[in-house]
Amino acid sequence: MAKYKAIPQRYMTVGEAAKKFGVTVRTLQYYDKEGLLTPSAESEGGRRLYTNKDLVLLHQIISLKSLGFSLSDIKGRLISLDTPVDVANALAEQANDIRKKIERLSDSLAAIEQLQTEVLQMQTVDFKKYADIIVNLQMNNEYYYLIKKFDDETLDHIRCRFDKESGLDFMDRFNHLSDEILQLQKENVPPESERCQQLTKAYWDLIVEFTNGDMSMLPKLVEIGNFENADNDWEKKQSIVSAYLEPALEIYFSSIGVNPFEGVQNE
Q1: Which stretch, 26-40, 55-69, 134-148, has highest mean pLDDT?
Q2: Which long-range contacts does 8-11 make (Cβ < 8 Å, 24+ apart)?
Q3: Contact 53, 2 (CB under 8 A)
Q4: What is d(CA 28, CA 73) in angstroms, rounded to the nearest whole number?
Q5: Beta bridge pairs of residue 3
Q6: Among 33-42, 69-78, 213-222, which is the least confidently predicted range?
Q7: Is the distance from CB of 61 to CB of 17 less than 8 angstroms?
Q8: Model-level pTM greater than 0.85?
């Protein structure tokens, strides 16, 4: 670090540098102490002196901090600014960070605006349900709107049974099976056929997996799965699947000698 008797031109004291960038002197002193931004020079009287190059680094620090990086992260990301290429690389990295921040903010804005629409469709204020909707919007789960159909007990069950990965995996398997069943319906395959009964068993196995064997949830699932007034393609598809599977399920339950709906329909 160079030392000067007087403060030469193009050098700034810590107070002048702080004022120029709208930060406190204490902040600059802390950055110096942490090794983030060491002034380039010092007067004989011990005053720390900053250059314009130091201020470019300070701009990097402030920008990265605004993006949510910790000081330790920032320290590892700062690069030398000795050549035009160094400066261009630093700006390119910073621009990329800002671009990612914009993408995250855009996703959050879209989630909030969609939640606003869903809130107006719900009959009561339910912040726990709002939180679930936001999480599923951020996951890009296109079936997020089903959450508003679930009661608190069913949602608690889902939270305990599934995390992000297992929940999306379940929906993928459910949709794949629904497509197979829909194909049978289009081909007019009879419900008693071996092909239909195999898929009916697979469908029922998924329901048992979802409920974890708790048959008391069946009436709620039937109510949730009632898409008589379907307003999107997925709900319309599920209405067709349900209607096609109704006689197939009766045949399947008869073949295994069990009717899981007995004893729970009137609960």
Answers
A1: 26-40
A2: 10/51, 10/52, 11/40, 11/41, 11/49, 11/50, 11/51
A3: no
A4: 17
A5: 42
A6: 69-78
A7: no
A8: no
Residue 139 pLDDT greater than 70, yes or no: no
- Pure H helices in the chain: 14-21, 25-33, 52-66, 71-77, 84-121, 127-138, 152-161, 164-186, 194-211, 218-224, 233-256
Of 47, 74, 48, nearest to 61 by C-alpha is: 74
Rg (CA), the chain: 31
CA dihedral 24, 28, 29, 33 (to 10 degrees): 150
Bridge partners, residue 48, by sequence: 42
Strand pairing category for 2-4 and 41-43: parallel
How are strands ordered across the β-sheet holding 48-50?
2-4, 41-43, 48-50, 12-13
For the cut 60, the answer to whether the pLDDT of residue 218 exceeds it is: yes
